[in-house]
Please model this.
Amino acid sequence: MIYNMTDKIRTEISTLGEFGLIDHLTEGIELRAPSTKRGVGDDAAVLEYPAGRQVLVTTDLLMEGIHFDLTYTPLKHLGYKAAVVNFSDIYAMNGTPRQITVSIALSKRFSVEDMDELYGGIRLACRTYGVDIVGGDTTPSLTGLAISITCVGEAEKDDIVYRDGAKENDLVCVSGDLGAAYMGLQLLEREKVVLKGEKDVQPDFAGKEYLLERQLRPEARRDIIEKLATAGIRPTAMMDISDGLSSELMHICKQSRAGCRVYEKEIPIDYQTAVMAEEFNMNLTTCALNGGEDYELLFTVPIADHETIAEMEGIRVIGYITKPELGLALITRDGQEFELKAQGWNPLSE
Amino acid sequence: MIYNMTDKIRTEISTLGEFGLIDHLTEGIELRAPSTKRGVGDDAAVLEYPAGRQVLVTTDLLMEGIHFDLTYTPLKHLGYKAAVVNFSDIYAMNGTPRQITVSIALSKRFSVEDMDELYGGIRLACRTYGVDIVGGDTTPSLTGLAISITCVGEAEKDDIVYRDGAKENDLVCVSGDLGAAYMGLQLLEREKVVLKGEKDVQPDFAGKEYLLERQLRPEARRDIIEKLATAGIRPTAMMDISDGLSSELMHICKQSRAGCRVYEKEIPIDYQTAVMAEEFNMNLTTCALNGGEDYELLFTVPIADHETIAEMEGIRVIGYITKPELGLALITRDGQEFELKAQGWNPLSE
Model:
């Protein structure tokens, strides 16, 4: 689990230079999407989408020490996650990711083998989701590692789902379960302290594999998008849950000029998440509402779809959309009503 | 010229938070390109290009201390340049830039006012070139500033010019003049030493404004692309000169499986560049060949276009394309022949 650089052969990046490194990393890359006309190797990649298809563009910048900690994040998993979180944004528009560009800034402590690991994870994610790497940039950094990925996707114009389409009485749904990635992070942070010898506790991941997987190697919910399409359900609003359920509900309600009522007892939480929250003496609902990095889908559907959606595995109806003046309400297990506040991961505030 | 943070009002970014900062920076952004359907504010931007148009994608990651030095780079100029270098890549494909995404990682030493400067430069570049800001990411950094910009552009399929189309006997052309941005950098680096009090020399930029402008606030050669189109000339190969003429000639010759002969006396150099090289006791041709950051266009045209191209202002024929086995040759003023080697800016080699 813990990434140990010292066991490995180390080739300095300076032996390849920038162009050599790019050639090395992109060697044997296949272009699979019919929309990819030219990939790496010119001033720009060239894409061509069929008439009537709209093009989706999303981007993420991940900084070492802010978004990831290499003391417990294997570089291959980091690469995989960096790609997948971008795919997730395209699925959240009800689209299909097709191409990415990958820019990496790295300090001298990284070797060619490290870059192979990182890029290997990105390439694995691309193979898994059918996405082409079509360009990027590789540059030195004075300090840590920075990864910037831009993803291009496509969708039929009428299929695209925005955040602003939720209507009164629509059902609020989430896929999968929430809070596990956050508990995985807590677990890894505890482990880090253990490794530093600052506490006399043995590392113990047994029975907690799911939490680690959710934190270190999340997947994008392509399957949910496909299921909804097959069932003939088109969400009225949708986004992916990266900052936490509360924060994302606020985005959808604000942009849709609506309110919502969600029920604590309906929020899907995995057993391991619950056990871990108890072990850490944390409020489970707070973790599920504000934990972030779940990369599940939050979406609303017309109430007419209730029967169909209620029967779909992996989707939970957690509440409904109201008039805006009713605000965002959480109904607790004992029937009390609280106003939802976003306490999501917002590192630019204090 | 020198950017002084201490004279300014300082608002901490933490007072706004991530979403507040994004709202603040993107406030009042207008979407001008007909191909932009939705900009900032959802999981992804939505674009739609007319049938038959191909989509160009290019990206750049700029790191503080590697690509820019804030002791002499005004943030507004940095923003302008960060955007323009991406536009330059799209023009180098014979396309038109239409949208960008802007990701910024910033440490606590930056204020809201600093971000206004940086973003102001990006927005000015976008207005000047008719490009929309459609998305991005804003995140903290433990150390310096990182800027990642991805640019999307468009072109008719048959208009796109790649690096691999140069043919034997084609003329090798460059726009503008070379080496000035590099001399501007030398000048600023000297000024930095002066400011540190390490040398007893007075800062002196008089008569050197052009060099500073070329380094700090380059433009992309949209005008050259338009001129060529008006004259009915379609280059056979093209790229922009960012790493230096030698390095770019090698890319074109390698990808086109060709060689070239270029003439030292034909390489366009500005008077100020020449004066400065003498002052610094540097070889002028070496500066022009390997300086980099010129953002001029290097392209090849069929020899049949010779008469037309020779008359076009701002374009110089510097040589011609040969069989690959003849290699890349520089013919000096005194008629000697040297093999061209790329010594361009390659910070990942030692």
Observations:
- The mean pLDDT of chain A is 92.
- The first strand of chain A starts at residue 36 and ends at 38.
- Chain A touches chain B through 74 residues (CB under 8 Å).
